[in-house]
Known about the structure:
The chain is mainly alpha-helical. It is 64% helix and 5% strand.
Amino acid sequence: MKKRFNTYTLLIMVAVISFLGYNLENMWLAVTKGFIDNRNMSFPFLLGYGLFVVGLYLIAGTPKSPGLVLSEQYSNKRSMYFFMSMLIISVGEIILGFTVEKIFGFEYWNYTDLPLHITKYTSIPTSIGFSFLLTLFMDKFFEPLMTRIDNIPRGAARIIGIVLAIIMLVDFIASFANMYITRSVNIKWKKTLKNGGEVGKVLIRLIA
């Protein structure tokens, strides 16, 4: 059975995952495109990642400690968690991608250059990659990290959690409002990396 954590611990974890998601996307860009940027935000947090991962934990738990939608009786909980994550990520990317395109008038991302893409907003290789990382993180690191955060004194955790939540929410609303007004992505800075993208090109050729 999954552990119970207080609201402030969950808020801090949302911020941690949002920060990791920001850096994960920039690592992907560095490898595949040869640059990094602000990922449309003013602060280094991608709120969607934090809300998704913590929400998944609240509903499904972890591979070691299943929640509501996974049974303790499954013999291979990691495989079930992986395939469940892959399905959610694939469907979620398609829904989010087309929703943003419909409302904001631009493509938030495009996977058509990748092999085995399903529409332009998801692909089998990316879904496998994200699901593998997610399952590994949830299995090995999520609850130990949450336990460390939960050891922060309650008063300090309250301040940290609320401040981080306000920063992320205000930045999210302001950034998407700007994108809605301009009908384009909110790029504030972009750094091209020397020899960046070459590894990604090789990997894509190998997969294809």
